[in-house]
Amino acid sequence: MAHDIEIIEKTPAEYSYKKRRSDRLMRSQLMMFALMIFMTLISFAAVQAGFSAYFVVPVVLLLAAVQVGLQLYYFMHMSEKGHGLVAFFMYGGMLIAFLTVLAFVTIIWW
Amino acid sequence: MTTVANSVGQKKGFGATLWDWLTTVDHKKIGILYLIGGGFFFVLGGIEAMLIRLQLLIPNNDFVSAGFFNELITMHGTTMIFLAAMPLLFGFMNAIVPLQIGARDVAFPFINSLGFWMFFFGGLFLNLSWFLDAAPDAGWTSYASLSIASTGHGIDFYAIGLQIAGAGTLMAGINFLVTIINMRAPGMTYMRMPLFTWTTFVASALILFAFPPLTIGIFFLTFDRMFGGNFFDHTAGGNTIIWEHIFWIFGHPEVYILILPAFGIFSEIFSVFARKRLFGYSAMVFATVLIGFLGFMVWAHHMFTVGLGPTANAIFAVATMAIAVPTGVKIFNWLLTIWGGSIKITTPMLYALGFIPSFVMGGVTGVQQGAAPLDYQLHDSYFIVAHFHYVIVGGVVLAILAATHYWWPKMFGTMLSEKLGKITFWFFFIGFHMTFFLQHFLGLMGMPRRVWTYMDGQGWNLFNMISTIGAILMAIGVIVLIINIIMTTAKNVRVGNDPWEDGRTLEWAIPSPPPFYNFAQTPLVRGLDTYWIEKQEGHNGYTAAEPVTDIHMPNGSIIPFFMTLGLFIAGFGAMYRVDHSWGLAVLIFGLAFTFLMMALRSIKDDLGYYVTKDQIRRTERGRD
């Protein structure tokens, strides 16, 4: 029917820029992937090694938080442009959840 | 091609019309469906209110039984909040927000329809309790120990009905967020959005964060009552206070979900009928966002007397009072908008002017209750009843009535009678103050809320009688409004694009009602109050941002209706599973049916259709 299909041609400069950019992204994603595997290994090792639970639990939680951050920024593209509102909503939600939990563990008796 | 021809509008039989409404994904039609559904439940909740007031007319009355009275107050509260106020606001959001931002529909038209049907079937499920068993009787807050001890299926109807309706609300909220973020016309930056769009945006964000706690709480309640859970049963290691926390973590943002769109409606009305730019636009936006944030940090002020401890009470008291600051900013901005304006007292403006003193009175008693020591005196008394009716009726309901008059011409293409509108206003406004003003004093005299009847000789008789007479006046006001709607529809005098003559926002730049594709060309927005700018420059209509091209539109679908029907059936299964063996089969059948419909939706590609340039030109010419 009458709806037109738009074809956008890339110039050679654009093409090589896009290629370089995606190469760079791919490299960083692979590095982060390796790093995350490494962190997972540390977590398993910490549990296996039989350290005190007071040491293992915070370490595992900390590594988990770092992994969530890496996941969001390197694999779910939050580091790229146009994600400001997404970040605002996520951090807003986290702040509200944090304050709610904080209220429960500090000032509420029940 | 047939689809296009149908949507352009021609004579159709009853069956075809019904099918059209059942399958529609058009935001304007879904807005009208929300108004019809919400209006129906509003009348139902109003009848419940009248029965409550008739019972309290004289001391020692036995017009209704004590058990039935508990059902009445529970269903009045639940119906008015979840099934009347919210859907009516959703109706206006659906009908108006896409027009205000220059969009052709919401971001997810299919989900929009699904959200409506889930609200409607959830409400239907809840209200079938009147006929099938007994209605819920543990109050609209349904505090756990009481609601778990309640016999019969009443509370089950509450839990499952609200679960279905709540899921619909969550979908609608997410839909509006995505629509406002992604579908704004070129030039419509965030700080050029009309205030109604802004408040819809913030209210939708509140829905996104507040409804999941409700979902969880109701699931816990469902499991405790129907599947042998012990979340709230303290004899089995549960904690009954957790329900109160979860309910109010949802419940406090909920009241802002209601009042923020009301603020948006009045902001529009003030600037249109004072014929001035809204005073302090950016402060208004900031105040809206701030109220949204603070709304999540005050839930425990509903629980001061539970015994949270002095530290918690003090901190939540201060946080509560902080909300008065952004709200005060808004009140002063509205006053300064009218100040020096060229004011036209139309029906919507009358509601807006009546709203300011009414809402301020509700706000002042709110701050009083925010003082924890005083709250120990006021808690569970009629003072509380007076307070929340002052904010919800004096704020939200007045806004809904104002919006009905204000946007009626845009939605239906006819103008409600101004004379009858003003009669409605005065009956409703005087009735409202008569009903609730004296209830403050009844509370201070010691009358507890939710009582079935009261003894003679306590000095409560006169005030209760005046209160009931006020309620009758409010009912007369609503009846006049219904007569007005019927007469206006019967006369069917069509109006043009901008019937108030002072419209400032984009919705007034297009025909009333708008064609199904809204804007023949996507508009270009050149500032706040887009249409006002165009009129100042002598233009008729809006500046287009694109040439006339084919418009991509979504197809209607019956799948949302059937998806919800499956959940509706599953709800009965879950409930009757407790006492009948066939219940489980019905539960499984209902859920399977819903999943089948979801699978159908995923498998079947529906890419919508195109309205061609020729058809657009023909439609636009036909209007001139």
TrEMBL record, chain A:
It is found in: Cell membrane. It comes from the Bacteria. This is Cytochrome c oxidase subunit IVB. The lineage of its organism: Bacteria, Bacillati, Bacillota, Bacilli, Bacillales. The chain crosses the membrane at residues 30-47, 53-76, 88-109. It comes from Bhargavaea changchunensis. InterPro entries: Cyt_c_oxidase_su4_bacillaceae, Cyt_c_oxidase_su4_prok. Keywords: Cell membrane, Membrane, Transmembrane, Transmembrane helix. It is a multi-pass membrane protein. It holds the Pfam family COX4_pro.
From TrEMBL, chain B:
It catalyses: 4 Fe(II)-[cytochrome c] + O2 + 8 H(+)(in) = 4 Fe(III)-[cytochrome c] + 2 H2O + 4 H(+)(out). Pathway: Energy metabolism; oxidative phosphorylation. PROSITE patterns: COX1, COX1_CUB. The keyword Transit peptide does not apply. It is a multi-pass membrane protein. Belongs to the heme-copper respiratory oxidase family. This is Cytochrome c oxidase subunit 1. It comes from Bhargavaea changchunensis.
